[in-house]
Each structure stands twice: as C-alpha cells, then as structure tokens.
Specification:
Elements lengths: L24 E2 L6 E2 L4 E9 L5 E6 L8 E2 L2 E3 L6 H13 L6 E13 L2 E13 L12 E7 L12 H11 L5
Parallel strand pairs: 3-8
Antiparallel strand pairs: 1-2, 3-6, 4-5, 4-9, 7-8
Length: 173
C-alpha cells in the first residue's frame, strides 16, 4: 500500500476523498493540496585504513538479518551529511570527518504494510579505526569486508545493492 492509499479522508477538514489513493491528495471541500514527496535517507561506504568496507547486519525489519551500509533517515531541518554522521555514531559509534558524495538512488521502503518512496543519498568516508561500538537495537553484526568478499545478493535494499555495484566497479584506492 502506498501512503496516498491511506488518505481516504481529508486530514484538514475530514471530508471523504472523491479520489482515494490519488497523488497529490486534493480535497475538493477545503482545497488542501498534499504532496507525497519521497523521504530522504543517507548511507555511507566507510573504508578502513586497509581498504575494507564496513557493512552492518540489520537488527530489525525491513530486511532484518540482511547486510547494509550504516545510515538512516534524514530528520526535518537536518542536512544530509549531519544526518549521516549522526546515524553512523548511533549505529556503530564511529566519527567520520570527511564524507564525499557518491550517488543518489530511488528506493522503496516496505514497512508495516506501507511502501514509502525514498531518495537515498550515498557518501564515501574513511575511518581511522576499525573499533566499533554497535547499537544492538539497530545492528546485530559488523562485517569489515574486502571488495572481493561483498556479495550483492546479501544486501538489504535495492538502492544499496545498486550503489555497491557502482562502488565495486570503481578502482580501489
């Protein structure tokens, strides 16, 4: 189910919608116009001094038990790099000084019966240490993998899988 499918009544005046599921939502009674823009998320390929890539195993759905990169949703009023640094600290306890933009990709995030459209922004970063401190509510395992060890079929999200495919096709260094 898409978020637009949930709007059967106007959230402003309560009148039934004449076109439930239509995006953007337009209420003919009060004139409210509501757009269903994508949520914004961020993720990072973090490289250790030896060139290994940090992947995390997800502790919760969607895709519990699958691998991904550290990251998460951007809060309102937050810029992408700040959100990503916050997510990296929360998930693996690392500080990253420099983040370089890599690519952006659309993603579908299926959660509790609703499919959210997300625009994922990916960055590359280097860490000075491989010592992590995980949040067990977010991460069940940390994997430092060489490029050759990364298996795309183990990756949680289509956008992360595509980003890693692109990353792996670039020269190491």
């Amino acid at each position: 189910m898409k978020p637009a499918d949930l709007f059967r009544h106007c959230p402003q005046c309560g009148k039934p919608s004449s076109e439930p599921g239509h995006a953007p939502f337009h209420c003919e009674a009060c004139g409210l116009l509501f757009y269903f823009n994508p949520a914004i998320a961020v993720g990072a390929v973090l490289l250790a001094p030896d060139g290994k890539v940090l992947l995390i195993r997800r502790a919760k759905d969607p895709h519990q038990g699958k691998l991904s990169v550290p990251g998460g949703f951007v809060d309102a009023g937050e810029v992408a790099e700040v959100a990503l640094r916050r997510e990296i600290r929360e998930e693996v306890g690392l500080e990253v000084a420099q983040l370089d933009y890599f690519c952006s990709l659309p993603n579908s995030y299926h959660y509790r019966g609703v499919t959210y459209q997300v625009l994922d922004f990916f960055f590359l970063g280097r860490v000075a240490s491989m010592g992590v401190q995980t949040d067990p509510g977010e991460v069940t395992e940390v994997c430092w993998l060489s490029r050759e060890q990364i298996r795309l079929d183990e990756i949680a999200f289509d956008s992360v899988r595509e980003m890693l495919r692109r990353f792996l096709s670039t020269p190491a260094g």
